[in-house]
């Protein structure tokens, strides 16, 4: 696997392996968390530069074309690696065309609106790449695990019944279908880690002084709800994985592996769109020879400035 083309083929193969386009038969228990795909960390580091260059070129074409927008949804348990994935995967992209939105607990004002309101308002424009660090799925994950915290007067239905959550999942499917009809392409990523790996990462936050700022006691509290979150993710992926808005359920015990697979998935999405820059204006095309001549005969910069000339101020 020494050739760049071989790595590209492997990347596509891994993306297809972990992409869920139909949730009917999805089983989260069958998805590994410690997969390496025959790769190692040093190899992925070496080929990441090529991946970033490909991604940057495709993003430039997306911005120039301006017909499609990209939405990347990142979900995962605490310590799954969402923040570091954004830093590594998006680092080669133009920040002017990349927008990251982190969704925290809804504010008082946000709670007065429907649960999709704040998410819709944060959508990127066409020609841009938007990244949601947590998203509308929090309302069928955290809200489902902690249903007792919901304001029962803010919606119809009973959160204690499966029908309520089925309704929310249906709303999300309709919302995402609407977005795709407006030329937005959606990739939803679930960074799938094991309880043992999460324990290790939380311990790192405690043991390493430079990481202690990340630690919050709520990490330990939420960890006790692991089985409930596992069921909630199972239901969320199974209920919303569609051909137009698939889930990439990527093994994430090894952060370098999940970053590689997510980057390849984003590249594949952009290559499928294949955005092309718009043609130059006709009046420019008819004047190309004249424009070249004017630039070649341009003398600006040929003579020294006053500051460079001796004896002159």
UniProtKB/TrEMBL annotation:
Gene3D superfamilies xref list: P-loop containing nucleotide triphosphate hydrolases
Keywords for the protein's UniProt record, in alphabetical order: Kinase, Transferase
Keyword flag Thylakoid: no
InterPro entries assigned to the protein according to its UniProt record, in alphabetical order: P-loop_NTPase, PPK2-rel_1, PPK2-related
GO MF term list: kinase activity; phosphotransferase activity, phosphate group as acceptor
TM ranges: none
GO biological process, one term: polyphosphate metabolic process
Coiled-coil positions: none
Protein known as: Polyphosphate kinase 2 family protein
Organism: Brytella acorum
Lineage start: Bacteria, Pseudomonadati, Pseudomonadota, Alphaproteobacteria, Acetobacterales
